[in-house]
Specification:
Elements lengths: L1 H16 L3 E5 L5 E3 L1 E6 L6 E3 L2 E8 L4 E3 L13 E8 L9 E7 L10 E2 L1 E4 L4 E6 L11 E2 L1 E7 L2 E15 L2 E4 L2 E4 L2 E3 L10 H21 L2
Amino acid sequence: MKKRLVAAAIFAAHSAALNATPIEITLGSARITPFFATPFNDVNGVSLNGQSLSLNFVFTDNFIRLLPSPGFPQTAVNFDISVALHTNANGLAGFASGTGFIFDQTGQPLQAPVVLGSAASDDGAIFLGLFPLLDEAPTNTRFYGFNMDITLPNNPGFEVTDEDLRLFGGQIQVADQVIQGQFGIGLQVADTGSTAIELVFALLVLSATSKLRVLSRH
């Protein structure tokens, strides 16, 4: 029953996304990285009247690959797709809400729509976050874009002035250390599925480093 409900939700999301506003994003050359950021201006001038926006962010030149465990590099489960909408409000502009999902090369959702994280700052910025690995997206997947269905705050008199997209690899706890998660961009990213040895090596290095710190204190 659950699988049928998920399939129905994915079908409905795909149908709705066909009418979404496309936003083209250039990722650049193939690499492994903990962070990606780029501005866009497709929502400039939109007023904050409590209306809904359906946005399809489409990667035009590459794709994102989530790197599974075990092994390093790997993508943390709190991998974050963050969209910031900056406004001309002098204080809090209000909180947006909505749902989102990542999709494949054909535009098919790779997960059922999930509730977006929401935040706002006192400089008028509105933030929305999509965490695909926390919401049953495949751990070893390639995605070619994502959809966000957003409801803006109702704050007449203010509007969106500029926007940016940021991807964060997340954080991974290894022993008593926190390691920056990473993700792949493009075809040249090597397969990390058989790199358990690298994880053991990383743990040994961290252990040795901790011992050296202890010895250096005596």
